[in-house]
Structures are given as C-alpha cells and as structure tokens.
Design goal:
Blueprint lengths: L4 E7 L5 E3 L3 H6 L7 E7 L6 E10 L4 E11 L4 E7 H4 L14 E4 L7 E3 L9 E2 L9 E8 L9 E9 L5 E8 L8 E7 L4 E4 L6 E11 L5 E5 L3 E3 L4 E8 L4 E2 L3 E9 L5 E8 L8 E7 L3 E5 L6 E11 L7 E4 L3 E4 L3 E7 L5 E2 L4 E8 L5 E8 L8 E7 L3 E4 L7 E11 L7 E4 L3 E4 L6 E7 L10 E9 L5 E8 L7 E7 L3 E5 L6 E11 L7 E4 L3 E3 L1
Parallel strand pairs: 5-7, 19-26, 28-35
Antiparallel strand pairs: 1-6, 2-3, 3-4, 4-5, 7-8, 8-9, 10-11, 11-14, 12-13, 12-15, 15-16, 15-17, 18-20, 20-23, 21-22, 21-24, 24-25, 24-26, 27-29, 29-32, 30-31, 30-33, 33-34, 33-35, 36-37, 37-40, 38-39, 38-41, 41-42, 41-43
C-alpha cells in the first residue's frame, strides 16, 4: 500500500481537530460500522506534552467512542507531528486500533528522532517520519546600547525567538525621521542574526526597527517591531561661565558652571585648567560626574592667565566626549595697602591741615581709595570722610569737636571694583586745642659788645607761650655775610656758642627763631642789638 500520513501541528495552549487524509486507511483500519477518523490535540496536557487522542466517529449512528489516549512529549512545549502509517501498519495484516496506542518521547541530543515504547515490537520501536518542533515566534527585539543614543553611535540589533526548524534567516527594517514614516529595508535577508546601525543626524528623533525571521526552507516566518528608539541631536556644550565673571585676586573662589545639550539628555562633566602652574597643559581638577559645577579656589601659584576647559559625555558613555574652553581668565596678586602716612606728626592743633597719603600693590594695578576716621565726634566708629576716587591723598583740617585721639583708615579696591577692598589704619593721631603765640623774651650774650676777635661769645634765648616745648635756630649777619646765615640749625638747644675771628671784625647782629617742638608750628624770631667785634 502507499504511504498514508496523519499530520498534526499545534501550539499547546489551543485545541484543534485534524481529519485523517487517506480513505484507504479509513476503510482498512476502522472497526466495523465506523466510517471516519479524527486526530485531536487535547488542551488538558501538561506544560511540555501534548496528548494525541484518536477518535472513531460513527456518522450513521451519531456515536463517538474514544480510542487512546497516547502521549507525545515535546521538550519545547509545541508539537509538530507527522505519523507515517505505512511504517506503523501492515495492510496485509489489519489489527485492532486499540492495540496501537504508542508512548512517544523526544530524547534530547537524538537529532529529533522519536523513540517509542510501542508495545508491538514487530514495528521496531523507531519512527523515522515523526518530528517535533515549535512554530517561529519572536519574543523581543534588542538593541545595544539602549535608547536614547546620540548621533554617530554604532548600535547592534538582535532578536530573541523560539520555535522554527532548521536554520533561520533575518531581515531588518527601520522607520524613522529620514524614512518618511515608512519601514525601509536596512539589511535584507541574511543568515547573520545581528545588524549594526551607526546613527546619523538625519535619524535624529524617534525610530522603530522591525525584525523578520523565517526558516531557511521558507516554511515559516514571523516579524516584530521594536519599542521606540530615540536618536538625540549631537552632544554639545552650550554654556560655560564663571561666577564672578570678572578676573579675581589670588585667594578668591570662582565657580564654573557648564550645560550640555543633545546626546542622550543625561550627561557627565569633567573640569580642566591650564595656567601658570600647569606647565602649559590642561590638568584635570574635577573628574567625571553629574555635577555641572566646579569651584576653583585660586592661589598665588595661579597668578597670571588661565583657561578653563569642560568636557561632557553621555551618562551611558555612548558616543564621543565634547569639550569647550573658556576665554582667558586672569588671577591677580592679592591687593595690599603698603603705606598710610601724614604730612604732619601728631599732635596737631585745631585748624592745622594734615594731608594723608596711601600706597597699594597687587590687584589689577589701578585703584580707588576712600578715607575714614574714628575720633571723639564719631561715636567710636569709623565714618566716611571721603568717598571712592582715584586720588590716593586726602587733606583733613581738624575741628574743635575733634580734639583728642583720632584714627584714620584708608580703604583700597581695584579700579573696576572687582575683588574685595583692603584697608590700613593709622596709629593714634592727636588733635589739640590752638596754642597761644610764642614770645621770645630775650636773646642775650655772655659778654659785652666790643670783644676782640677770637673770643667765644655764648648767646642764650628765652621764650614763653606756645606748647612750652621749643626748637631754636640761631643766625648771624655781619661783615662776612651777605645776609643772615645759619650758625646753629633747629634743635632743642636754647644756647649758641659763637667762635669769633678776624672776618667778623665790625658790626654783627644775632637772630634767634623759636617754634613749637611737637609739630614745628608757631615759629617766631627776634634780632639782637648790634654786637661789635674789634
């Protein structure tokens, strides 16, 4: 007899009935009174087996009788069964179908050959025509790296599937901003199960990848579309700025802030600096992290021109890092007030003008100055006397209500007002009430006029008023002088020894000048009567 086949293919979660396709088998292998045969996959099976139930149907009497069950165990849970009845039955020796209830088991590693525990050993126990496999079913479409990615990133696409028979072929299609919203073949049918796609600027936006899988013998095929896969605009650094924006003096803190755009939308940043202390190269000062800010505490070693560079990259490390460099940022030496001096020494009288001068170094080299004073009239605090100007000098004329101890403070800052002002305070400076005028009561020699040349004549001055403490200066006018010549300069000595000589012979006049010792004010003078040298 010819070959008679029963074919059954079914996923385990369903139940379906298949008719026998050979009328000869129906005639020769059915019990009396029956004219049909059915094969049913029973849905009550376990997770990895299907029960093959052979049912004899009597179309005349409308009766159903079950012959079975037999069990096919499938390792992947889906059975595709072909039974070659030419190998199962001998047409010359019909048998009762009830004795043909085989137990089939698909043995792992046996290349799909079905081994049987068939009770009739004359059939040999092996059925070459029976195979077990599952229909193709795609479980997932996978991409590495995961969405989103930037432009220029190489992505690898693969598919996870079950079932199928023999070898498979794969086809990849993509729909995106550059395809007009339709699926375009990106890689046609091939036995290679993966596809590499390097993203482009044209694909910026949402993309979808569809994978199709088929058996190489074209007996089965299926497809699945990926979830949304986003290609971001190219990564770029949009902002790099400092706070404060202006250059600073050494010791100041400078905050640097950066912002990136494009890429995956999540970034890491690192901050670098090139300056006088880095040997002309960029040195990393803050390693990769999610912080967009770096605080730079400047030092004396940074004095000069500096440049800040920020690098940014996608947080998932896809794509290439980008960088941005600041404009030149200068660090100056610390601003310092080096001196604060007065043109008169303490104490001074009310009404005596005093000019205060100051000097500074460091900073930006040009400065603004303001002067402050604390004294008897300020309530113990420093009060502004002259606001900021570029003049380093200030003249103060003490008033009556300022009599007592005073302190002068100068503040200095960079002329562009950047950085912090610095200051210096004077020592105590005393203002006293106005003094009475100095009066020279007398200027007298220790010898009478008419002494001979080579005599020593001592002149003594006496004064009253003023501060009570004086300085004296002695001068002489005589035959050998064109006018009054200093004989003894300013000192606290109230006497002067004149060593006469022949050049002095004739009429001479001695002049004494007296002033207050504390501040050199109030000077007065007096001239002696004529004094003759013979």
């Amino acid at each position: 007899m010819g070959g008679y086949l029963i074919s059954a293919r079914k996923e385990l979660e369903d139940s379906i009935t298949y008719y026998l396709s050979a009328s000869d088998f129906i005639r020769n292998h059915r019990p009396a009174g029956n004219n049909g045969n059915l094969v049913t996959l029973d849905p009550t099976m376990a997770a990895n087996e299907a029960k093959l139930r052979v049912t004899m149907q009597d179309t005349l009497a409308g009766l159903n009788s079950t012959v079975g069950p037999s069990t096919i165990k499938s390792p992947d849970g889906i059975a595709d069964v072909t039974l070659d009845f030419e190998k199962m039955f001998d047409s010359n020796n019909p048998v009762d179908i009830r004795s043909l209830l085989p137990q089939f088991t698909c043995m792992g590693g046996q290349n799909g050959i079905i081994h049987s525990s068939w009770p009739d050993t004359t059939l040999g126990g092996v059925f070459v025509g029976m195979v077990v496999h599952r229909p193709l079913s795609i479980m997932s479409v996978n991409a590495t790296p995961v969405s989103p990615v930037g432009v220029g990133v190489t992505t690898t696409w693969s598919v996870t599937f079950t079932g199928g028979s023999g070898s498979q072929e794969y086809r990849f299609l993509r729909s995106g901003p550059d395809t007009g919203g339709v699926y375009v073949v990106a890689r046609d049918w091939s036995s290679t199960p993966t596809w590499g796609w390097t993203t482009t600027a044209a694909a910026t936006g949402n993309n979808y990848v569809q994978v199709k899988v088929r058996n190489s013998d074209l007996t089965d095929s299926t497809g699945l579309i990926s979830t949304k896969y986003t290609v971001s605009a190219p990564l770029s650094i949009t902002t790099l700025y400092s706070s404060p924006a202006l250059p600073v003096t050494a010791g100041a803190n400078v905050g640097w802030n950066a912002l990136a755009a494009g890429g995956t939308g999540s970034y890491q940043y690192s901050f670098w600096r090139q300056g006088p202390d880095t040997g002309g190269v960029y040195v990393k000062f803050q390693d990769w992290g999610t912080s967009t800010n770096w605080v730079w505490t400047t030092t004396a070693a940074n004095i000069g021109n500096n440049y800040i560079m920020v690098k940014a990259r996608n947080s998932n490390l896809s794509g290439t890092a980008v960088s941005k460099i600041s404009t030149m940022y200068k660090v100056y030496a610390a601003l310092t007030v080096t001196s604060l001096t007065a043109t008169k020494v303490s104490p001074v009288n009310v009404g005596d003008g005093v000019t205060w001068n100051s000097a500074a170094t460091g900073g930006k080299g040009t400065y603004l100055y303001s002067y402050w004073r604390q004294g008897p009239d300020t309530g113990g605090v420093y009060v502004l006397q002259r606001d900021w100007t570029s003049s380093y000098g200030w003249t103060w004329t003490p008033a009556v209500n300022q009599v007592g101890n005073n302190y002068v403070m100068v503040k200095v800052k960079n002329s562009d007002s950047s950085g912090t002002a610095v200051y210096k305070i004077s020592a105590k400076f005393v203002v006293q009430s106005a003094l009475t005028p100095i009066v020279i009561d007398s200027i007298t020699p220790n010898a009478a006029s008419g002494v001979s040349a080579s005599s020593i004549v001592t002149w003594t001055a006496h004064a009253t008023g003023g501060s009570g403490s004086y300085q004296y200066q002695f001068l002489r006018s005589g035959p050998d002088t064109p006018g009054y010549a200093v004989m003894q300069d300013w000192s606290s000595a109230s006497s002067f020894n004149w060593y006469t000589n022949s050049a002095n012979i004739g009429n001479n006049y001695i002049q004494v000048k007296v002033r207050n010792a504390v501040n050199g004010t109030g000077a007065v003078s007096k001239i002696s009567t004529m004094f003759q040298i013979k």
